[in-house]
Amino acid sequence: MKNAIALQEVHKSFGTTRIILGVSLEIREGERHAIIGPNGAGKSTLFNLISGRYQLSAGRILLHDADITNLAPYEINRKGLSRSFQVTNIFHNMSVYENLRCGVLWSAGYRYSFWHRVAGLQDVRRRAEQVMEQIGLGRRRDTLAGTLTYAEQRALEIGITIAGGADVILLDEPTAGMSRSEATRVVELVRTVTQGKTLVMVEHDMGVVFDLADRISVLVYGEVLATGTPEEIRANPAVQEAYLGALHKETAAADGPHA
Amino acid sequence: MNYQPLNLGRWIIWSAAALLFLVAPHVFKGGFALTMLTQMGTLIIFALSYNMLLGQGGMLSFGHAVYSGLGAYAAVHVLNFVGKGVFTIPVPLLPLVGGAAGLFFGVLFGYVTTKRAGTTFALISLGIGEMVFACVLMFPGFFGGEAGVSTNRVVGQPFLGLTFGPALQVYYLVAIWCFLCMAAMFALTQTPLGRMANAVRDNPERAEFVGYNTQHVRFLQLVLASFFAGVSGALSCINFEIVSAENVSAIRSGGVLLATFIGGVPFFFGPIIGSVVFIFFVVALSGFTKAWLLYLGLFFVLMVVYAPGGIASLILMQFPVIRAGRWRELALPYALAALCALLALSGLIGIVEMVYRLSEQGANTSLTLLGLSFDARSAPPWFVFAAMLAAGLAALRVAARRVDARWGAIQLELQAKAAS
């Protein structure tokens, strides 16, 4: 199977602080790949490197075998990779529909056009409305994005990410800050909208990770500790030691007084 | 589905605007009114083009006069060439020459300024404005030095029988161009570029991650805005028959910022209102008092502090209350607040005018205000005006609280009604 994304010896430092220490990782086309690890492991930094938000200190990143190292975010997006953010990153002063339309315009080929009337672009409208229905915000079409509930904003964030039709989707903690029922809905949403696409996600909720992911990579202190199927990761003693075990103890400690 | 192929409301508004342009000189009669209306038309184009940067693209420019000024210089030279018979171009098409020049310099300078956004963009635009102003004075052969380049708009063969000598013909030329430019600039807000300019203004990072090079969006928006600025420059050249260094100066750039902000940056029609108010200050008020710039500055500061959305926002925020039929409840608090403001304003004007009169060397210190004659050197008028100002401000505080309370109560009720 071909790789959608390949990271080759990727390094990233901020000043003298080394955050990513030689990560090599292959994400196959069509798979759902989760990146997990403790806080400060460099998961979001890795996302920022892949999507062009940060420049690499060393190494290479390939997207469908094409070198995208240190390209600008818009160039990477145009090559078919789209991402969401850990902190909701939408157009707050625009309506839900306008947000999604922004996500569609470039890929629909209208780019910097100042000779098309945007309201008359039927293909753009159809696609934006289709995504709006998919993410369950059809009834909120004309609502200002900034006034949506948190869960709705997260859904819109995912909608903007997929609206352009990118085939590689990066989701940074899509269920962060959500209740169990909201998270369950988001998992279903992610499952639906990434059908047939490559999905890479950073996620803290292990329930979500083991439910969604085909393969998992564990990142600890800027290095990949292990990559494998959910079963392999669960059974990996090094992962248990470095992350899952600690996470289990933390969860148990947090649950203890309430039990 | 909200898609409307024909928006009736829009047709009505635009037809009303066209009608207003048509009848304005017949309603406001006289040479002075015509001068004001013509200048308003020119400034409306300039301010709308400025708002393509500030309001729609989030670019605070301190050097927008560069594009209108250089457009005006191009127009004045072409007009002089036409006058000498070097070549022929109908005067009504001269704004296209200004527009082309504005566009050219928009490409040239915009390539540099739009590399950055935010404060850096503002500072680069300021630097380029100063640079161009210096260049204008450095090359008097082309720019005419401080005196500028003068011209005569009555050149060549009459166009459809019009010579553009009479001020009324110039007004209608400005009015037609103003209407066309308004329509074109509004149309631009409805295009993919226009919408993405809003997106880049609100969240440049997100715009990059949906495939847009934010620098290109800013650049194109600035180039198009420069075209319209150039058109307004050429129209002012036709109107005044002179173009000088003042046309590219920071004062002109600051003026358009003031006009746009006073009108309302967040709304397309804001700069139109702002231009009308600004010209009132510059042309009408300057004829009555030397302190007009101080009043303009004070008005601007008050708008920035109390109504950052400009006059347009103050108008628009009344609409939901009017629609709900609750405006009458606000009429009395509004009227009281207006009376208090008027009292404070009268006191302020009295003090400012007396200060100005006393600051003038050898000037007559007696003056007439509000129908009363008095001497600025005597104490009683100072006490009276100071008391008016103090009492007006104190009463305004109370009246403003009443407006606030009533307004807040109505808003809460309307929200509760909408939620149910």
Q: Can you walk through the features of this model?
A:
The complex is a heterodimer of chains A (259) and B (420). With 259 residues, chain A is α/β, with parallel strands linked by helices. Chain A has a single domain (31-51, 75-258), classed as Rossmann fold, CATH 3.40.50.300. Chain A contains nine helices and ten strands. In chain A, the strands form two sheets. Chain A has a six-stranded mixed sheet, with helices on both faces. Chain B has two domains: 9-316, ABC transporter involved in vitamin B12 uptake, BtuC, CATH 1.10.3470; 319-419, no CATH class. Helices cover 74% and strands 3% of the residues of chain B. Chain B contains 17 helices and four strands. Chain B has a two-stranded antiparallel ribbon with strand order 1-2. In chain B, strands 3-4 form a two-stranded antiparallel sheet. In chain B, a hairpin with a 2-residue loop joins strand 3 and strand 4. The mean pLDDT of chain B is 94. Chain A binds chain B through residues 51, 53, 72-74, 77-78, 82-83, 89-94, 98, 101-103, 105-107, 110-121, 125, 129, 141-142, 160, 163-164, and chain B through 1-5, 187-188, 190-196, 198-199, 202-203, 205-214, 216-217, 220, 224.
